[in-house]
Amino acid sequence: MIRLIDIQKSYDNGTKALKGVNLRIDDGEFVFLVGPSGSGKSTILKLITAEIAPTAGRLMVNGYNLNNITPRQVPYMRRTLGVIFQDFRLIEKKTVKENLIFAMQVVGASSREIRKRVAYVLDLVGLLDKGDQRPDQLSGGEQQRVAIARALVNNPQMIIADEPTGNLDPMRSLEIMMLLERINELGTTVLVVTHERELVNRFSKRVVAIENGRIISDETGGYYNNETTI
Amino acid sequence: MRQRYNFKYLFSEGFHSIFTHGFMSFAAVCMIVCCLLIMGSFSLVAVNAQHNFSDLEKDNQFSAYIDETLSQEEARALQDEIEAIPNVARAEFVTKEQAQADFEADYEGNPLFEDLPSTVYRDRFHVYLEDLSKLTETEAAVKQVAGVADTYSAPEIAEGFTVIRNIAGGVALILVAILLLVSLFIISNTIKLATFNRREEIAIMKMCGATNAFVRWPFVFEGMILGVTGALVGFFLQWGVYALVGRAVGGTDTIDLIKVLPFQPMALWVLLAFLITGLLIGVVGSMLAIRKFLQV
């Protein structure tokens, strides 16, 4: 579960990125966070992943109070999250399997756990036959599915996807979104940051719209109407 | 909430990283070798200088002249009392006849010192010291012994030896400290470059929940391997250079003024010093290099 209570964030250059944001995402939800560039979407993601700290307000992520989290606790909090990026961020010199193994070695998983889990998530994302290929041998959509598999491999409570379809064509984008929906149906909370109106509107999910550092609407089953949600 | 570490994996990551930027690793090892060689050479020169000065110091002594009213037997009896004085290594009795013979032998053919009457000479002790820097106090203490009429020394020689020894030691220490810092800076920059090449990988690791220790260990292992390799190469080169210089000094120093210590008895200490220094340079250098990249 994520809770942002009256969160404010100002950067050193004086930019006020967030001006009192209140947001609650419960376990098992699927949420679209939408808004134009510079609206504060990325700042919210950085706050949730503890890359930055809020200037004011209270922030809870999966049972961790990020207002007084110690640097030693941060890695353990991050293990409850799986993060997906627009540019995939796969390690090019490693194969698909090795990318997933790497993510599990990082958290100290045993070889047995790794073998079992890697096969399971590769099957889940439909890449069981591509395990030995390197990312540059895959299409954009397949690379993003590898990134999703990597985010899932440590069985996180929540998946955070930052513009996951930004580099993909509409067909591949739809596939990725359907995959995320399936992952959500299996019990993982999903937060997708995007500004792709058509894609958001195809899924009847909760849509949180942010503009100028403030949440301007939060509708379950809502849709994204270019400027604002309804 | 304790992290399990697979050290085999971490070590293998560090080991493989050396070969993924092979040239930089080679440059780092070369720099460590150079620094250790310079450091080792200065230290060995300092050790040899210390040894040679100690030998010279051992030759240094002062004379204690005995009161003329004492017989030679009475004078000899003072030996125990003089040797009991702190900082006196030993006292050697010289009769006036022996002193005359030595003097005449030293100045043979010099008309200025010919035909000196035997009454000019006195029985005396040559007093040898443990620590030359305490010459003045020791000489004063010997002078207090009943039966000792006077003493003679050349304190400026003693002070000269002490000053040279202290300067040599100080200079060596400063140079070693500077070279250590230079080595640290170089290895730190080498690993920083390696870290920079892998910054994306580190960011991914951190996002997946890697602890700082997990990210740091492969780089620390890399630094350790580079440091130990540099130390071993440096040690054998140092051995070769020392043997060559020793042979060259032995060949030119016909009066055997400078004694070059053999390397073998010092080899284990030199190896240990190189290994510890190499390891420290590697570990501290890598820790300094990775610090910035952990702040994700």
Index terms:
heterodimer, A: 230 residues, alpha/beta, 32% helix, B: 296 residues, alpha+beta, 4-stranded antiparallel beta sheet, 8% strand
Description:
The complex is a heterodimer of chains A (230) and B (296). By secondary structure, chain A is of the alpha/beta class. Chain A has 7 helices and 12 strands. A 6-stranded mixed beta sheet of chain A has the order 6-7-8-3-9-10, sandwiched between helices. Chain A has a 4-stranded antiparallel beta sheet with strand order 2-1-4-5, with helices on one face. Chain A has a two-stranded antiparallel ribbon with strand order 11-12. Chain B has 2 domains: 7-56 and 160-294, no CATH class; 60-154, Alpha-Beta Plaits (2-Layer Sandwich). By secondary structure, chain B is α+β, with helices and mostly antiparallel strands. The longest helix of chain B has 43 residues, at 155-197. The mean pLDDT of chain B is 82. Chain B is elongated, with a radius of gyration of 31 Å. The interface between A and B is medium-sized, with 21 and 20 residues.
